[in-house]
Specification:
This protein has one domain: MetI-like (MetI-like fold, Orthogonal Bundle). The protein is 83% helix and 0% strand. By secondary structure, the chain is mainly alpha-helical. The relative contact order is 0.15.
């Protein structure tokens, strides 16, 4: 059993989650602050979500080749929806009286966003990040079809040669990884919500 592939898989997921969080937060804030572009951005992200993972990876492979970079970019696309939507919903759901109080204190729009609103919306934003990370663990398996590495390659090879023990080990590794991230981030999520 080679644990390097588990680390490989974790690398793909964590790198994709990092970039998806940064891009998702920026897009979520843009959707919240600029009503004119809101429907367009949300619609594009919804459409991306409907495209099969293999199709997106196949298109990306034309431009970036068959490697881990392509898998990471594909995972970023798939991770955007929950982060963008939760950022927008979290910011939009803040009590208007709090926003008015901050405005009454003389804060600018950007000061209110960074000093008040993002902090209050963070538990909801973190929920979106949690969904994106846990989903990416399973979706990253498709990276095997374009030479992206990770546990997908091990699973694919085990199926081809009918190596049941390796297949079970790889599948169990995916499940354990997903459970650890889900419960770990779920615990943090409850702590964040308790503080707000």
């Amino acid at each position: 059993m080679n644990f390097d592939v588990v680390l490989d898989h974790l690398y793909l997921v964590l790198m994709a989650s990092l970039f998806a969080t940064i891009i998702g937060l920026v897009l979520g804030v843009i959707v919240y602050m600029f009503k004119k572009v809101r429907p367009l951005i949300l619609q594009i992200i919804d459409i991306i979500q409907t495209i099969p993972a293999l199709a997106i990876l196949g298109i990306l492979m034309i431009f970036f080749g068959g490697n881990s970079t392509t898998v990471i970019i594909g995972l970023v696309f798939y991770s955007l929806l929950p982060i963008v939507r939760n950022t927008y919903v979290g910011l939009e759901g803040i009590d208007p009286s709090i926003k008015e109080a901050a405005k009454g204190m003389g804060m600018t729009k950007m000061q209110r966003l960074f000093m008040v609103e993002l902090g209050l919306a963070f538990p909801m934003i973190f929920t979106g990040i949690r969904i994106a990370v846990v989903t990416s663990i399973g979706t990253a398996v498709f990276g095997a079809f374009i030479g992206g590495g990770g546990l997908g390659s091990t699973i694919n090879r085990a199926i081809l040669i009918q190596d049941i023990s390796t297949l079970m080990w790889a599948t169990a590794s995916l499940m354990v990884m997903a459970i650890i991230f889900d419960y770990g981030m779920g615990f943090l999520e409850k702590r964040f919500k308790a503080r707000v």
